[in-house]
Design brief:
The structure holds 2 protein chains of 2 kinds.
Chain A (H helix, E strand, L loop, with lengths): L5 E10 L2 E11 L4 E5 L6 H9 L6 E6 L2 E2 L10 E4 L11 H11 L4 H14 L15 H14 L4 E5 L7 H18 L2 E6 L2 H7 L2 E6 L2 E6 L1 H6 L4 H6 L4 E8 L2 E4 L2 E4 L9 E7 L4 E5 L5 E9 L2 E7 L5 E7 L11 E6 L5 E4 L1
Parallel strand pairs in A: 3-8, 3-9, 6-7, 7-8
Antiparallel strand pairs in A: 1-2, 1-4, 4-5, 9-10, 11-12, 11-14, 12-13, 14-20, 15-19, 16-17, 16-19, 17-18
Helix pairs in contact in A: 2-3, 2-4, 3-4
Chain B lengths: L1 H37 L5 H7 L1 H7 L1 H35 L4 H13 L2 H19 L7 H21 L3 H10 L4 H12 L1 H17 L2 H5 L5 H11 L1 H35 L1
Helix pairs in contact in B: 1-13, 3-4, 4-7, 4-10, 4-12, 5-7, 7-10, 8-9, 10-13, 12-13
GO biological process, one term (chain B): transmembrane transport
Membrane topology (chain B): Multi-pass membrane protein
Pfam family, one (chain B): BPD_transp_1
Chain lengths: ~350, ~270
């Protein structure tokens, strides 16, 4: 399967007074899965729709496989797309839906049918080939949509929040399937989502968007462990906002000196440190200054909310087995692990 | 508990039959009366009616009116669908802000009485006569305007039932031109809405009298009216036939819609 690299250069798009895209740059290597993550209205869907040709950009270049396709209409771009809303054609069966793109490419009936059946088998729904969309569950419909998008061997696969209408369990299952299939067929894929867990779980690289621009792009681990900006730190994963004081490349929070993430440029003085719950340890201690105010059980893990003197509140993430030692009201000692943190101005 | 439910179901069943019977009587009684009237002096009327050659010779007005109405039906339905379907789809996809305007414009003919409409149509038809002649078939232009409110409603309702935007974007991304999107994706999914629009147009054209009469054109209703002055039984027979034809069309239409649903459920 041929797969192309994608490059978006200085894409701009304005809706009225709103800058949906404000000079977006993005590079995708052939065969890579990039997730665009961000709050609603950050421009991630607009970027995907412009790449698909369903929306025009005001300026900027869209280069796929070395060619600028800004003026190529959507139907000539050869991009497979899976939508957030169920998009199967209601009057066609699952297999006819998958054949649709092949039929437009004038493939002969036998080859077409075989390819469509293979694709349905690939997405694990081969047994339901002759069902109509309304006879399939949401998850099954999105599988068929994925098979349809991949059947004609697109240069690029575009996934526009394809899992957000599904229930939690199916969502996890299907996102793993999407990753398996994407690795198997090797199509360059842009995956747009507002669900950070989804993005971190399946992408080669995650781009966090804010106000029409990429705030940071990197491997899921980079994004999570060394967020470049306070926005990324807060948007991806939970963060405690703790008052501290910066001195050089160290911030002192709760009497602990924590290193700053590399490349952070902050002035010395008071600042707010963003500390992950898993970097906070809590132990029951009658002399501790903190007091447990709430606990929430999350299966193997648990979150403990601790009130500290002077209105500060910190959330810690622990193994849930340790919950027994600290019911609400327990006096505790809070210790921060010395991992690099992001700070924002106080 | 089960007994109570059964009793209630039986009561509802009975009520349903009462309603159906009442409506059947209401609709069928006039038809039966018409039929009785046409056969009061024997079957001659129907014999002539089904012998189209004799019908044409005996009642040339009727023949002209029927022919004109036939063409009017075909052309009005064609023009209505060709104008409306792409427009309504396009407005939904690309110009959603114009939707209210289009709806308002398409409803206008409903608010203007036919007699008033003729006042406006007369000068327009002066030009139509000048360019394409005075044939009664040219009335299809006016009938398309008359059919707009009904056809628009039907098609718009059909489009509301599907996610046109997502479906057409999906089709576009798969490689469809706009024409293919319309033909292969939108139309098959609003088929019953298009059929309803077509049927409503047929019913409207077959029943239209005022405009044709005031513009001095012939259609089946004008012919029936004129025939009523010379042969009452034949005019009633033709009216009856037109009504039965309209009912049959409606019946066929609902039957077609139902069969399609069943096909989907069983496959």
């Amino acid at each position: 399967m041929t797969s192309s690299g994608v490059r978006l250069e200085a894409l701009r798009r304005q809706f009225g007074n709103v800058h949906a895209l404000d000079g977006l740059d993005l590079d995708m290597a052939p065969g890579e899965l990039v997730a665009l993550l961000g709050p609603s209205g950050c421009g991630k869907t607009t970027a995907l729709r412009i790449l698909a040709g369903l929306e025009d950009s005001d300026s900027g270049r869209i280069i796929v496989g070395g060619k600028d396709i800004a003026n190529v209409p959507a139907n000539k771009r050869g991009m497979g797309m899976v939508f957030q809303a169920y998009s199967l054609f209601p009057h066609l069966t699952a297999i006819e839906n998958v054949e649709f793109g092949l039929r437009l490419r004038k493939q002969n009936a036998a080859a077409r049918r075989k390819r469509a059946q293979d694709m349905l088998d690939l997405v694990g729904i081969g047994a339901h080939a002759s069902r109509f969309p309304q006879q399939l569950s949401g998850g099954q419909q999105q599988r068929v949509a994925l098979a349809r998008a991949l059947a004609f061997e697109p240069e690029v696969l575009l996934l526009d929040e394809p899992l957000s209408a599904l229930d939690a369990k199916v969502r996890v299952q299907l996102r793993e399937e999407i990753r398996r299939i994407q690795l198997e067929v090797g199509t360059t894929t842009l995956f747009v989502t507002h669900d950070q867990e989804e993005a971190l779980a399946i992408a080669d690289r995650v781009g966090v968007m804010r106000a029409g621009q990429l705030e940071q792009i990197g491997s899921p681990e980079d994004i999570y462990r060394t967020p470049a900006t306070p926005f990324v730190a807060e948007f991806v994963g939970l963060s405690n906002r703790l008052a501290g004081r910066v001195t050089g490349d160290v911030v002192e929070v709760l009497d602990t000196k924590l290193p700053l993430v590399a490349g952070a440029s902050v002035h010395d003085g008071p600042a707010t440190a963003l500390v992950r719950p898993e970097s906070v340890d809590v132990t029951a201690d009658a002399d501790g200054t903190g007091r447990v105010v709430a606990v929430s059980f999350l299966g193997p893990l648990a979150r403990v909310t601790v009130a500290l003197p002077g209105d500060a509140v910190v959330v810690a993430q622990l193994a849930s087995a340790r919950l027994a030692e600290m019911p609400p009201g327990t006096a505790v000692r809070v210790v921060l692990r010395p991992v690099p943190v992001v700070v924002s101005a106080a | 508990m089960a007994g109570l439910r059964k009793r209630r179901a039986r009561r509802q069943q009975a009520l349903r039959w009462v309603v159906v019977t009442l409506f059947a009587v209401l609709f069928l009684l006039p038809l039966i009366a018409m039929f009785e009237f046409t056969t009061r002096d024997g079957w001659d009327t129907w014999r002539v009616f089904f012998n189209w050659k004799a019908l044409g010779e005996t009642y040339p007005i009727l023949w002209t009116g029927m022919k004109a109405s036939f063409w009017l039906v075909l052309l009005s339905v064609a023009l209505t669908l060709v104008l409306l379907v792409p427009t309504v789809v396009w407005v939904r996809l690309r110009l959603p802000r114009l939707r209210r305007v289009v709806e308002f414009v398409s409803l206008l003919p409903l608010t203007v009485p036919a007699v008033v409409l003729v006042v406006g149509l007369a000068p327009v038809y002066a030009w139509v006569v000048y360019f394409v002649g005075g044939s009664s078939v040219t009335l299809f232009l006016a009938y398309t305007v008359l059919a707009l409110p009904f056809a628009y409603r039907a098609i718009d309702a059909g489009l509301s039932a599907i996610d046109v935007r997502t479906l057409s974007e999906a089709a576009r991304s798969l490689g469809s031109s706009w024409a293919t999107v319309m033909w292969r994706v939108v139309l098959p999914n609003i088929r019953s809405a298009v059929l309803s629009a077509a049927f409503l147009t047929v019913a409207l054209v077959l029943g239209e009298f005022t405009i044709a009469s005031l513009l001095n054109r012939d259609n089946i209703q004008v012919a029936i009216n004129q025939l009523g002055k010379s042969s009452a039984t034949m005019s009633v027979a033709v009216s009856l036939a037109a009504l039965v034809l309209a009912f049959a069309l409606l019946f066929l239409l609902s039957f077609a819609g139902r069969r399609r649903n069943r096909e989907r459920k069983t496959s």
